[in-house]
């Protein structure tokens, strides 16, 4: 009896928490940047059960009677930032394919990720809500990527807690490919660009044959070829189920990717595209979206020699879909908005640059129906800012994922990850791919 | 004279003439941050023969006839990067354009920076495009004593054109980056300190031998010349500081201990965990050339903070910011961008600007020439179309000793 009483108390408590979470929340009076549509000077955002239910000018949005009203005057609300290319969680050189060969599409990055990596906490401190976590670029094909939402509250226990799944419960992700210098190494890796392209073509042709065999077997177990995880992933790419995220810098390497994409019909997003400004016409003609990295200086390796802040703006003017990415650890997720701002400095439009941090990234991972803008029916993923998102002085105050606050700058522990300090860096895994220098990390052992 | 030689001669004459002509320049700025007193609103700076000859409010300064006048919303002194390796760690990152670190010995104070500086590396032009006019550069962290540093202007075709101080500091490293494996020394923190102390003691003995020989006059026999000990002797004699790259608090404590034992001047460099030892650093009177705030935080640097500069400045410790050494992409950081992050994390605008102008100049001992806009100082200016720290502001011009070295908005 007594136990039953305690149980029912606990149960009631649980119900009330759920009810509090289920209650709609209305953020009132903020400048709202919905990405789709004009910026709203004084707006209201209403969320309920993890979804956006209303967004618009404060005098036009009806706030439900039972809603919790949150005064957001003086603040800016924009969609959670989406990074199309991240290596947080130990997913760089140590995460995906190993040194046994240049083509390993069967490897899944999510089998290697440390969900407790403080990089995730830094990412939400930068207003990020969704990442495409990728294996490194030291292989022609280094494995399957995973699209994750940074559900840091309650504390995640495993990477599965971050998954974005399809209706069947399968974790969504793409396929990581690379060309140029990073994947050119000692045998069994290719030593030249010609060999690199040949090896990739050979595998895709095999995958096509594998697929044809399965089709011809018409379900007859005697005729179905043994399951091949590597070829299976390539088939998924050719069927458009898996978007190819392709590291490529130099203009000729970019053209090679477009040629391969056309030959095998895989949907491709070009990543980094340092020389993209040189072949913007061709990229536009191929309708290939570009996920651009913005780095503080050109060089550091041959293929980044002509990297420019102007790339995003030039591609935009040619009608190319442009997103930015952190390549975290190459750049820090906490300052991701800076990439867009530097592109604006070099000629990109403000609207285009803000879209490149959000909706364009969602499009590049095929999730723009769920995330990337503030619109009714979309996931309640957003950042609350103090200041203009393109200003150095802007602070991310709060980050929300699926209607749950996952970062609060006012919380001392969250603040530590936002600014740094003693204890902020544990569990970090550096990622700097494919450079043979014992002292590459410069930070010691 | 061959036709070819004649043509070359003409080109040289023209270049010389052009230089002289453009050395007469004035800059009108809506706001001029002189870093010597309050900013001047609607002011003018006149530069003649490379030096500032007049500055003040536009209604009080007459621009001499024939001077070229540039205009900008915001004018600052040319920026100073208090520690970088541009000119040593080349843009391509190939083995043969990386002269920032010699690995054959852990102790090489004898390596001079002037023998390795590539004034023509494209990264120098890159940082200049954002307003950086003076750099303190040299052998990078990574060996117990990596070598010497120099101070240069971000211009000139040769090291002789560029350099303003040929040998400034001797660069030492007390991070694990300088530790060796496979039984080589130094392999630990304790051994690193033991080796440094041993060298300084040797240098002191060397000094002593030289002194005794000099005292003995004709009968004296000076020790054979030793470039390594000669360099360290200059550190002992307070002619050069020992720049000590440190990350961890315990290594900062070791550096301070070393400075006290040998009565030498040191600069703490990097100093990621310096916020844990503010009182000790302040008491020791040691300046700190702080790591770039956007430097990657991992390994020894896992505890770095965007707010370190503000904590040290608040305590009254002399602070300058640096772009540091980068081994990969980006091959260099830009000190303007780093100061911007510091300004967004606790420093005021003025304090942040000081860390890359006058305060950097004072630490480096070159404030008689650069770091502020004052009469008689070098005509080094950076021009911006807005708040220099804002991401979307452009550097619209850069002037070094009266010559316009960059005028494409960047």
List the main descriptive attributes of the protein structure presented here.
heterodimer, A: 445 residues, alpha/beta, 8-stranded mixed beta sheet, 6-stranded mixed beta sheet, 27% helix, globular, disordered N terminus, disordered C terminus, B: 410 residues, 9-stranded mixed beta sheet, 7-stranded mixed beta sheet
Describe the structure in your own words.
The complex is a heterodimer of chains A (445) and B (410). In chain A, 27% of the residues lie in helices and 20% in strands. In chain A, the strands form three sheets. In chain A, strands 1, 2, 3, 4, 5, 15, 16 and 17 form an eight-stranded mixed beta sheet that branches. Chain A has a six-stranded mixed beta sheet with strand order 8-10-11-12-13-14. Chain A has a three-stranded mixed beta sheet with strand order 6-7-9. In chain A, helix 2 packs across helix 11 and helix 3 runs parallel beside helix 5. The longest helix of chain A is centred in the middle third of the chain and has 25 residues. By secondary structure, chain B is α/β, with parallel strands linked by helices. Chain B is built from eleven helices and 16 strands. In chain B, a hairpin with a 2-residue loop joins strand 15 and strand 16. The longest helix of chain B has 27 residues. At the A-B interface, helix 8 of A face helix 2 and helix 9 of B.
């Amino acid at each position: 009896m007594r136990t039953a009483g305690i149980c029912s108390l606990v149960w009631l408590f649980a119900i009330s928490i759920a009810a509090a979470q289920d209650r709609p929340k209305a953020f009132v009076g903020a400048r709202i940047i919905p990405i789709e549509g004009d910026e709203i000077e004084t707006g209201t955002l209403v969320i309920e059960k993890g979804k956006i239910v209303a967004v618009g000018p404060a005098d036009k949005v009806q706030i439900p009677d039972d809603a919790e009203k949150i005064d957001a005057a003086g603040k800016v609300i924009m969609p959670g930032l989406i990074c199309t290319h991240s290596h947080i969680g130990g997913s760089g050189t140590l995460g995906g394919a190993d040194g046994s060969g240049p083509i390993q599409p069967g490897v899944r990055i999510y089998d290697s990720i440390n969900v407790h990596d403080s990089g995730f906490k830094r990412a939400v401190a930068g207003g990020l809500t969704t990442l495409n976590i990728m294996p490194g670029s030291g292989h022609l094909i280094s494995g399957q990527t995973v699209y994750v939402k940074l559900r840091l509250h309650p504390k995640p226990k495993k990477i599965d807690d971050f998954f974005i799944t399809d209706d069947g419960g399968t974790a969504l992700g793409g396929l990581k490919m690379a060309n140029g210098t990073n994947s050119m190494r000692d045998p069994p890796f290719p030593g030249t660009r010609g060999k690199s392209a040949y090896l990739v073509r050979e595998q895709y042709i095999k995958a096509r044959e594998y697929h044809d065999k399965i089709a011809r077997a018409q379900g007859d177990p005697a005729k179905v070829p043994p399951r091949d995880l590597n070829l299976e992933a390539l088939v998924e790419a050719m069927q458009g189920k898996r978007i190819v995220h392709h590291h490529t810098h130099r203009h000729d390497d970019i053209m090679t990717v477009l040629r391969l994409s056309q030959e095998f019909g895989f949907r491709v997003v070009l990543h980094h595209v340092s020389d993209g400004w040189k072949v913007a016409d061709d990229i536009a003609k191929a309708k290939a979206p570009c996920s651009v990295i913005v780095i503080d200086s050109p060089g550091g390796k041959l293929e980044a020699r002509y990297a420019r802040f102007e790339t995003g703006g030039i591609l935009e003017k040619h009608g190319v879909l442009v997103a930015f990415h952190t390549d975290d650890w190459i750049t820090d997720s906490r300052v991701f908005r800076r990439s867009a701002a530097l592109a604006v400095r070099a000629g990109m439009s403000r609207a285009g640059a803000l879209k490149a941090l959000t909706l364009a990234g969602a499009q590049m991972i095929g999730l723009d129906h769920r995330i990337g803008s503030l619109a009714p029916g979309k996931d309640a993923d957003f950042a609350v800012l103090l200041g203009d998102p393109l200003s150095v002085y802007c602070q991310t105050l709060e980050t929300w994922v699926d209607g749950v606050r996952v970062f609060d700058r006012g919380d001392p522990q969250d603040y530590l990850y936002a600014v740094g300090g003693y204890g902020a860096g544990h569990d970090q895994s550096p990622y700097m791919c494919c450079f043979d220098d014992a002292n590459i990390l410069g930070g010691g052992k | 004279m061959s036709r070819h030689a004649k043509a070359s001669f003409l080109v040289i004459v023209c270049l010389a003439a052009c230089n002289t002509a453009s050395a007469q320049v004035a800059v009108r700025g809506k706001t001029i941050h002189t870093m010597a007193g309050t900013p001047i609103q609607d002011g003018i700076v006149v530069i003649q023969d490379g030096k500032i000859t007049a500055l003040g409010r536009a209604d009080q300064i007459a621009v001499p006839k024939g001077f070229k006048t540039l205009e900008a919303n915001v004018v600052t002194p040319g920026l100073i990067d208090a520690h970088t390796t541009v000119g040593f760690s080349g843009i391509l990152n190939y083995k043969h354009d990386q002269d920032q670190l010699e690995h054959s010995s852990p102790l090489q104070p004898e390596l001079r920076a002037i023998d390795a500086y590539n004034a023509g590396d494209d990264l120098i032009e890159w940082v200049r495009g954002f307003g950086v006019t003076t750099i303190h550069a040299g052998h990078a962290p990574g060996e117990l004593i990596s070598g010497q540093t120099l101070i240069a202007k971000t211009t000139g075709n040769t090291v002789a054109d560029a350099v303003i101080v040929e040998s400034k500091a001797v660069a030492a490293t007390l991070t694990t980056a300088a530790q060796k494996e496979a039984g080589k020394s130094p392999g630990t923190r304790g051994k690193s300190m033991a080796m440094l102390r041993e060298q300084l003691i040797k240098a002191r003995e060397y000094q002593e031998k030289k002194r005794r020989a000099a005292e003995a006059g004709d009968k004296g026999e000076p020790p054979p010349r030793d470039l390594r000990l000669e360099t360290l002797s200059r550190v002992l004699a307070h002619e050069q500081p020992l720049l000590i790259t440190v990350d961890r608090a315990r290594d900062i404590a070791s550096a301070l201990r070393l400075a006290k034992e040998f009565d030498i001047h040191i600069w703490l460099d990097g100093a990621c965990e310096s916020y844990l030892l503010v009182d000790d650093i302040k008491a020791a009177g040691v300046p700190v050339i702080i790591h770039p705030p956007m430097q990657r935080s991992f390994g020894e640097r896992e505890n770095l903070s965007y707010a370190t500069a503000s904590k040290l400045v608040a305590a009254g410790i002399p602070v300058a910011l640096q772009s540091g050494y980068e081994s990969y992409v980006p091959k260099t950081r830009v000190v303007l961008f780093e100061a911007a992050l510091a300004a967004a994390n606790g420093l005021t605008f003025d304090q942040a600007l000081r860390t890359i102008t006058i305060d950097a100049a004072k630490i480096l001992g070159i404030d008689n020439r650069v770091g502020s806009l004052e009469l008689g100082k070098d005509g080094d200016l950076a021009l911006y179309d807005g708040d220099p720290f804002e991401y979307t502001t452009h550097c619209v011009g850069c002037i070094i000793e009266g010559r316009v070295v960059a005028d494409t908005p960047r």
